[in-house]
Amino acid sequence: MKLIVISDPVYFKDEAHLINQLFDAGMLLFHLRKEGFSRQAYAALIDGIDKRFHDRIALHQFHELVVDFPSLNRLHYPEWLRKETIVKGLPIAMGNYTHSTSIHHLDELNDLTGFDYTFYGPVFNSISKPGYAGIANIDFVLPRHIHSPKIIALGGITAEKIDPVKQMGFDGFAVLGAIWTEKEEEIQNLKHLINSNKQTSSNSFN
């Protein structure tokens, strides 16, 4: 299954250096989400990340930065931005970009024309947001939507929960707390997730 890492929501010293180390350790796809960041600070963080990794970074905000960093080709639309864009009648699928979004209800899959994949969750109780309860029980199985984008499990996912996520029918999973909660253990946390994920069959997408 595809393993996606979401950035720590809070800036920390030498963050770009650590992100480069995570890429070198095997991180394949990185979602850069920094709510409250200025455009300048967001761009400075991207600039600190090695350019050879830019095509593996998905922007959650300031999509216009693809002009300044032409190797960036992944755009994430948080739920509010997706709905706002649709209300304004603006197109989602533009250029040779990979588009992603987030949903909390499966019936929203019908509204995701133009998206390559979507986060869905929280599947389990959130690690990074205590009290944010999961929506899936152990018997949960995703219904098959023939024309839907790939569905990525989000929320409370640890190495021990990768196999249950696979059995639920997800195409991949995204992690935040499982990487960032233990400071100075981020690289080891990633390697543990990668090794655990190798026990599942590959289900890749662009």
Automatic annotation (TrEMBL):
Protein name: Thiamine phosphate synthase
A single MF term (Gene Ontology): thiamine-phosphate diphosphorylase activity
Recorded metabolic or biological pathway in which this protein acts: Cofactor biosynthesis; thiamine diphosphate biosynthesis
SUPFAM superfamilies per record: Thiamin phosphate synthase
Lineage, opening ranks: Bacteria, Pseudomonadati, Bacteroidota, Sphingobacteriia, Sphingobacteriales
GO BP annotations listed: thiamine biosynthetic process
Pfam families named in the record: TMP-TENI
InterPro entries: Aldolase_TIM, ThiamineP_synth_sf, ThiamineP_synth_TenI
Keyword vocabulary terms for this entry: Thiamine biosynthesis
PANTHER family: THIAMINE-PHOSPHATE PYROPHOSPHORYLASE, THIAMINE-PHOSPHATE SYNTHASE
Organism of origin: Pedobacter hiemivivus
Cellular component annotations (GO), alphabetically ordered: cytoplasm
Residue span(s) of domain Thiamine phosphate synthase/TenI: 101-179
Domain of life: Bacteria
